[in-house]
Design goal:
Elements: H1 5-19, E1 23-27, E2 30-34, E3 40-46, E4 48-53, E5 56-61, E6 64-69, E7 74-80, E8 82-83, E9 91-95, E10 98-102, E11 108-114, E12 116-121, E13 124-129, E14 132-136, E15 142-148, E16 150-151, E17 159-163, E18 166-170, E19 176-182, E20 184-185, E21 192-197, E22 200-205, E23 210-214, H2 217-230
Antiparallel strand pairs: 1-2, 2-3, 4-5, 5-6, 6-7, 8-9, 9-10, 10-11, 12-13, 13-14, 14-15, 16-17, 17-18, 18-19, 20-21, 21-22, 22-23
């Protein structure tokens, strides 16, 4: 056992060296990945590379998308026209303008039938059929009917939605929490959202109580900037 110990320690150290999160670097307008020891694991050969989500990074080369693992291996070939990062074990992908979702093995879990799709947020993903939007769960079940003009991603378990030209807020059961009475609205962040009613903008809470009126364009822009920073 004592003779095997140095070998085991070497293999463990080697595995840790190459299995940790990789760090993007840029060279001649291309993206590669290094480890924490600044050693190049993936040469700068991709046109784009994301950070790692659930152990995988989205990479693009010649306008095709695929995924690498934390060892720098291409585990899902670059065959997709569009793709998103992994969330909840699934990633959106598209071929010939149709969207669906794959798992970490590259297997299609939700068929590529949608006009557009987004990454999962809080267990739901926005999907579009034709001109209308709804949302599905990880099993591909439609949880929010595809009947809305527009949806924002779920935030704090509320979904900002547009229907018949007005904005309101629904929950994950498609129940209206705040009526469709606003000209515009943002997602909830830290318990508040910004809404527009006529020419006035307000900060509201999840009970639809107006907390503060935004009096000027500068104040509205400052509030929008702060919300982007909090996302």
């Amino acid at each position: 056992m004592h003779k095997l110990l140095p070998i085991i320690l070497f293999l463990t150290s080697f595995n840790n060296l190459y299995s940790q999160d990789l760090i993007r670097f840029y060279e001649k307008y291309k993206v590669g990945y290094k480890n924490n020891q600044n050693m190049i694991v993936v040469p700068a050969e991709y046109d784009f590379g994301s950070e790692f989500y659930e152990g995988k990074a989205l990479v693009i080369k010649n306008n095709k998308r695929g995924f690498i693992d934390e060892n720098g291996k291409e585990i899902i070939p670059l065959t997709y026209d569009d793709a998103g990062v992994f969330a909840g074990g699934l990633a959106k992908v598209a071929i010939n303008g149709k969207y669906g979702f794959i798992n970490s093995n590259g297997e299609i879990i939700i068929n590529l039938i949608y006009t557009q799709a987004d990454d999962f947020h809080e267990g739901l993903a926005r999907v579009q059929l034709g001109t209308k939007w709804g949302a599905i769960n990880y099993q591909g079940e439609i949880k929010i009917p595809i009947e809305y003009d527009w949806l924002l991603n779920s935030s704090e378990k509320l979904i900002t939605a547009k229907k018949e030209g007005k904005w309101g807020f629904i929950d994950h059961f498609n129940q209206t929490i705040i009526p469709f009475e606003y000209n515009n609205a943002t997602a909830f962040i830290n318990g508040t959202a910004t809404v527009t009613e006529g020419k006035s903008s307000w900060i509201i809470n999840s009970k639809n109580k107006k907390l503060k009126k935004l009096e000027s364009n500068e104040e509205r822009e400052r509030e929008a900037h702060q919300r982007r920073k909090k996302k």
